[in-house]
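Me: Here is a favour to ask of a fellow structure person. Could you put it straight underneath, so I can go through it closely?

Assistant:
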Amino acid sequence: MAGEKSTWEQLLAKRAEWAEHQPSLGAELKAMAREAVKDIRGTVHQSWFGQPEHGAELGTPLNPTPQMTTQDLGTVHGSYQAMLDSYAAQGRVADERENER
């Protein structure tokens, strides 16, 4: 039993593992500040000029990118990740050929 970790140590180890995959707090706060500034500008522009300033950024919530829309429609053959994987495989083959020389 001396070699086993206690429940508390296991919990702390799992928390550290999860924390590695989370963005930093500073980055999250900066993103929240940018969104707040955009919301305030949009509200002021709407109330002052009677029309919105511009459309929302692509990729933000409720505003997908064209690639996301195309993939959701199912008109894309394969996936972007599969294409990247195929290019990576071609690069590895080329590296192996060069190493053989």
The helical segments are 7-20, 25-49, 66-73, 80-100. The radius of gyration is 24 Å. The chain has two domains: 1-54, 56-101.
